[in-house]
């Protein structure tokens, strides 16, 4: 069995962002040389997510509104977590809703997606360097 590990780095200019990282994951899969197996992609930070859904601008705007409705960034004082001196209480909750990781089957050297599936990095406390782990196992 082969195993391949790669870190993808991101630094968004905004506090929140959604980035389609499918091309970077496909590049990692090519580098791995693995034809049959599993590909794990996970955020390495507790205020960011990796999830799979459609790359459609209306949906991305809907996520932003929906998450702000569930866990608005302000008022900062609305979160007990922010008593630590941080201001990212909302970002931890948004990450929980949008998830930590995805696993995609690898078949014939390709990510074996369903219709319209794309892998996204969801950033909820950006403007600093953060990482995503790609781990691919198989043969
Ligand atoms: Zn925090």
Structural commentary:
The chain has about 140 residues and is α+β, with helices and mostly antiparallel strands. The protein has a single domain (about 1-139), classed as Sandwich (Jelly Rolls). It is about 25% helix and about 35% strand. It is built from 3 helices and 8 strands; from the N terminus they run ββαββααββββ. It has helices at about 20-30, 55-70, 90-100, and strands spanning about 1-10, 15-20, 35-45, 50-55, 100-105, 110, 120-125, 130-139. The strands form 2 sheets. A 5-stranded antiparallel beta sheet has the order 1-8-3-5-6, covered by helices on one side. It has a 3-stranded antiparallel beta sheet with strand order 2-7-4. The model has no long low-confidence stretch (mean pLDDT about 100).
């Amino acid at each position: 069995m082969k195993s391949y590990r790669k870190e993808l780095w991101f630094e968004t200019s905004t506090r929140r962002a959604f980035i389609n990282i499918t091309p970077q994951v496909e590049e990692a899969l090519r580098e791995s040389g693995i034809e049959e197996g599993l590909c794990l992609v996970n955020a390495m930070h507790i205020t960011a997510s990796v999830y799979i859904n459609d790359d459609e601008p209306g949906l991305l705007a809907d996520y932003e509104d929906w998450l702000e409705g569930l866990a608005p960034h302000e008022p900062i004082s609305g979160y007990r977590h922010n008593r630590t001196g941080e201001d990212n209480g909302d970002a931890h909750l948004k990450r929980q809703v949008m998830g930590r990781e995805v696993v995609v089957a690898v078949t014939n050297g390709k990510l074996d997606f369903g219709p319209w599936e794309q892998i996204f990095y969801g950033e909820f406390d950006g403007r600093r360097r953060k990482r995503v782990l790609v781990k691919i196992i198989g043969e």
